[in-house]
Amino acid sequence: TAALGEMAEGPGCRVIKREPLFVALYRGHPLAEREALSVAELREERFISLPEGYSFREITEQLCRSAGFEVDIVHECFHCQLLACISDEIGVALVTEDTVKQERMRKGGSDILFPALRDENAFRSVSLRWDQERALPEAARQFVDFALCYYGGER
């Protein structure tokens, strides 16, 4: 059985990256200066999230449920709008390590802070999947090998 946020590996599915999650908070938020938080500490927060049907929304909902509460999503938007909504103090959001890195490179001194989530299940898996009923073309096989090597997965 796969962990929360992770697909089960097997024929036709390889996890290439496990990405830790963070919470995005506006600078004046009472929890913003903390280095790390647990999901349970976000119980009373208003969340910004992707619309229903997106896997990252499901990860957010599952993490909150596993911490003992139902997430209060007050605003839905896409990734490109998310950080602006945080800056406007509409709510908080869970984000990936890649989002944190991109924001730090883009702005330097941001008005958004990103405490890490210390929960063991606070991660997102990036997986490659393919149809096992069809032969994998050589170029696709080479791509799988490259992705596994690039992200440090096993071949």
In short:
By secondary structure, the chain is an alpha/beta fold. The chain has four helices and eight strands; from the N terminus they run βββαβαβαβββα. The two termini are 21 Å apart.
Characterization of the model:
- It is a single chain.
- The chain has 4 helices and 8 strands; from the N terminus they run E-E-E-H-E-H-E-H-E-E-E-H.
- The chain has 155 residues and is of the alpha/beta class.
- Strands 1, 5, 6 and 8 form a 4-stranded antiparallel beta sheet that branches. The protein has a two-stranded parallel ribbon with strand order 2-7.
- The radius of gyration is 17 Å and the shape is elongated.
- The relative contact order is 0.27.
- The mean pLDDT is 87.
Core attributes:
155 residues, alpha/beta, 4-stranded antiparallel sheet, two-stranded parallel ribbon, 4 helices, 8 strands, elongated
Q: Measured on Cα atoms, how large is the radius of gyration?
A: 17 Å
Largest sheet: 4 strands, antiparallel
Strand content: 25-35%
Helices, by number, come to 4
Class computed from helices, strands and strand pairing: alpha/beta
Number of strands: 8
Please write the string of helix (H) and strand (E) elements.
Answer: EEEHEHEHEEEH
The N- to C-terminal Cα distance equals: 21 Å
Average of per-residue pLDDT values: 87
Stretches where pLDDT is under 50 for at least 5 consecutive residues are: none
Shape call: elongated
Helix content: 25-40%
